[in-house]
Amino acid sequence: MHKIKNFILNFGPQHPAAHGVLRLIVELQGEKIIRIDPHIGLLHRGTEKLIEYKTYTQALPYVDRLDYVSMMMQEHCYSLLIEKLLQIKAPQRAQAIRVIYSELTRILNHLLAITTHALDVGALTPFLWGFEEREKIMEFYERISGARMHANYFRPGGVQSDLPLGTLDDIYDFIYQFVSRINEFEELLTKNRIFKQRLVNIGIITIQQALSLGLSGPILRSAGLKWDLRINNPYDIYPKLTFSIPIGNTGDCFDRYIIRCQEMRVSCWLINQAMFSLASGEIKTDIHLINPPSKNWIKYSMEQLIHHFKYYTENIVIPQTNYYQAVEAPKGEFGIFLSTSHFNKPLKCKFKAPGFLHLYSLHTFTSSHILADIVTILGSLDIVFGEIDK
Question: Where would you tag: which of 130, 209, 223, 283 has the fewest CB atoms within 10 A of its CB?
Fold first, then answer.
């Protein structure tokens, strides 16, 4: 009597639909998925350990390079964390600028997520359209920081510099025309028969499953739960802004696509509100501890010059404490835990990457599905390995 064995398939790490250096060990019975075992560790750079050997200011550029599609979101989280540890607040103008750029970053992320997801299931055109819009947002990054991606712009206590002249007008023009671009994406994809056949009722997750697995962001909201840290645990000027949280009904891949489209519309509305609430004033806190005086050596005293030098060499010292700060990143709840100890470097640093939890829930998403659905489900999870394998 012959015994039939299941087929073991190595999916990745070179697979173009794997969204990074991901290796999946897939056990198949015919085309039906029996088990999926994700293997990560091919990108690992030891970011958390590197930060433990840097001062609090030197650590900031590292968080840019985690989720390299949502750079300023991670800067936002880190800056808020240091502010909470020092018990300070950024000025209102700085908070508004942060919100504007955080929401531009959300659009930047969702454009990549939606267009590469469409590419995974065979639609090429949205990818070309979406990247044209992403270039415009990267130009806004470049204006305020000189860098298209890793901006290093947010700071504990505010932002690095004020907005250049004309930037707000151009951002307003962008969000005004961008709503029409979202309409074009949806016109091409939302009622497309082939696209819906690949996404509808694929990768379904329930609220109970999502909560037990620690899922967040569009994936949790696709199951029907209204949970968004911008409302449930607000920060900066978000409590002053009005907006709704898009949620899904079935928790499938199609719901996750729809939610990301709706969230881009919400981000445009939030940017519009933040721009009109942008009061004149300082863009950095006046707390002398973390705002070193100007380099104008003639105007300032020798004591202030010494403080400036010591700030950038020795940096700040934070009393012994443990603190966790999270923000509503485009992929879900991105959090940073810091343990400090009367020194100018953190004792312990740990990141909570939403993509890590989403990836390790892959077996729950893929149960009772076939091999071709893996690509569809991976695309709907919107994973980036910079934060997963940090």
Answer: 209
